[in-house]
Specification:
The complex is a heterodimer of chains A (225) and B (244). Chain A is globular and about 75 Å long. In chain A, helix 1 packs parallel to helix 8. Chain A is mostly helical. In chain A, the strands form two sheets. In chain A, strands 1-2 form a two-stranded antiparallel sheet. Chain A has a two-stranded antiparallel ribbon with strand order 3-4. With 244 residues, chain B is α+β, with helices and mostly antiparallel strands. Chain B has a domain of 163 residues. Chain B is built from seven helices and nine strands. In chain B, a hairpin with a 6-residue loop joins strand 4 and strand 5. In chain B, helix 1 crosses helix 3. Classes of the chains: A mainly alpha (225), B alpha+beta (244). At the A-B interface, helix 4 of A face helix 1 of B.
Chain lengths: 225, 244
């Protein structure tokens, strides 16, 4: 035991945070957790609450599983991970219902579906089971923020062009948008919100755009054939 | 340490302990947050009723404080409860009836069901808000429908659901679908005949009594229709008696 205790913020450990933000991003590179990225990014606020929920669940699950890693029987490890994740997800769901009821209604089933978010099970299985709590904590933060920034970018674009607002605050005045003036019966305005932005499929295009941008910046990421 | 991590006994012990710990955590959490969650649900119910009554849009009501909503509700809304034959039931508060539970409990015996009604009156208008509940595809759906002064024309409606599919059945809780009920006048009665309202596919043949269904959400749409068909009858009976 002569080796010096490795600092939590050593270069190797900081890589755990930095990599998932970019070169091994769970959404754009590993293409995990896409389902929720499509579903809840209509508004920035929803995307943010979802991201924070995932952040909480991922950090807690990663640390707990890492603490228990030497105790968990191999045969039931997936189920143990599921129980831990499910407990955390229900906690989040209950807290949202009590404190941000409106948002929790809009997120509806998707909070519950964090349980099935591949990012979480993926990190538990690939990292937390074989590493100490400290690095697992950092790994969770890195991956959760990798998820978060993509969601926020997609949410931002969808909200601005789909609803003309940012975080619920109108940036495109209602007067600009096509509408019928009730006094004169004439059509006024010159702008129309892009309805496609409100539908889930557009998130696929936006995520694809992120993937494209990322790979043209770093050509190493482009797969062969 | 001589504990065999992969022995059957250890595996069982670990599983049981884990489940007990998780169970205790969740149970205490549910207990702690219950009051707050129920306050949210009651607040939302008041908002639904006020919005169906046309007091203000749901979006406006959501900007109000919880206490303001409660005060407003108590000031402007009167409550009554009827039985299936339209007789008033005394001593029951309409607001406290959980309509989804009430409909579920009396699924096979609508005659024993309690039927609450909320009335909203101001100087030149009055509205009767009727709560209703039914089944969608995945779980219960419910709503509040406001009838105008003639106790026949629909003047406002709100629906909500527990777990309909987002983007399909869940659209019943959105404005475009709910607007269909008030864009053109919809009636509950056809002359003297009780009609309810039908939700139909492929064009309206009787636009006074029909609503266009949501594409891709047949079962939820049918559920709305079925819910509306059963909902109004006892009230019609009650009002007929009062009028005679």
């Amino acid at each position: 035991m002569s080796a010096k205790r490795e600092s939590l913020f050593s270069k190797k450990n900081m890589k755990l945070i930095k990599d998932p933000l970019n070169d091994s991003n769970p959404i754009s590179i590993q293409v995990l957790g896409i389902c929720s990225a499509l579903a809840i990014t209509i508004m920035l606020e929803n995307a943010f609450v979802m991201s924070m929920s995932v952040l909480f669940v991922l950090i807690m699950a990663n640390v707990v599983v890492s603490l228990l890693r030497n105790l968990i029987p191999d045969k039931i490890r997936i189920i143990v991970q599921l129980v831990i994740v499910a407990t955390l997800v229900i906690t989040v769901d209950q807290v949202l219902k009590a404190y941000v009821y409106e948002v929790s209604k809009q997120l509806s089933v998707f909070v519950g579906l964090i349980i099935t978010n591949c990012i979480i099970m993926g990190r538990l299985e690939a990292f937390a089971l074989g590493n100490k709590p400290g690095p697992s904590f950092l790994d969770a933060i890195g991956n959760a923020f990798g998820y978060t920034w993509i969601l926020l970018v997609v949410g931002f674009v969808r909200e601005v062009f789909g609803s003309g607002s940012i975080w619920g605050i109108k940036i495109i005045p209602d007067d600009w948008v096509y509408h019928i003036n009730p006094d004169t019966g004439l059509t006024e305005g010159f702008y129309e919100h892009n309805g496609l932005m409100l539908l889930s499929p557009i998130a696929l295009f936006l995520v694809a755009a992120v993937i494209w941008a990322q790979r043209s910046k770093n050509r190493k990421l482009i797969e062969e054939n | 340490m001589a504990v065999n991590k992969n022995s059957t006994g250890y595996t069982f012990g670990f599983a049981i302990l884990l489940v007990v710990v998780c169970g205790v955590i969740l149970a205490s959490l549910a207990k702690i947050l219950k009051d707050k969650q129920q306050a949210n649900i009651a607040n939302e119910k008041r908002q639904f009723i006020l919005s169906a009554a046309g007091y203000a849009s749901m979006d406006t009501l959501k900007t109000y404080e919880m206490s303001e909503i409660e005060e407003l509700f108590n000031k402007t809304i009167q409550q009554n409860v009827y039985d299936f034959n339209g007789k008033p039931i005394a001593g029951v508060e309409a607001f406290s009836i959980d309509i989804v539970k009430e409909y579920k409990a009396t699924k096979d015996s609508p005659k024993t069901r309690k039927y609450p009604v909320f009335s909203y009156k101001n100087e030149n208008d009055e509205k009767y808000i009727i709560p209703m509940a039914g089944n969608g595809l995945w779980g219960p759906i419910w709503g509040f429908c406001a009838l105008g002064k003639d106790k026949n024309t629909i003047e406002g409606i709100v629906f909500d659901h527990k777990s309909e599919t987002p983007g399909l059945g869940a659209k019943i809780a959105e404005k475009p679908f709910q607007d269909l009920f008030t864009l053109t006048p919809k009636m509950v009665m056809k002359g003297e005949k009780y009609m309810g309202l039908k939700v139909v596919k492929g064009g309206l043949k009787d636009p006074d009594h029909q609503i266009d269904a949501i594409a891709g959400a047949t079962i939820t749409s049918n559920g709305v229709g079925a819910m509306m068909k059963t909902a109004f009858l006892p009230y019609m009976k009650a009002w007929k008696k009062v009028n005679n």
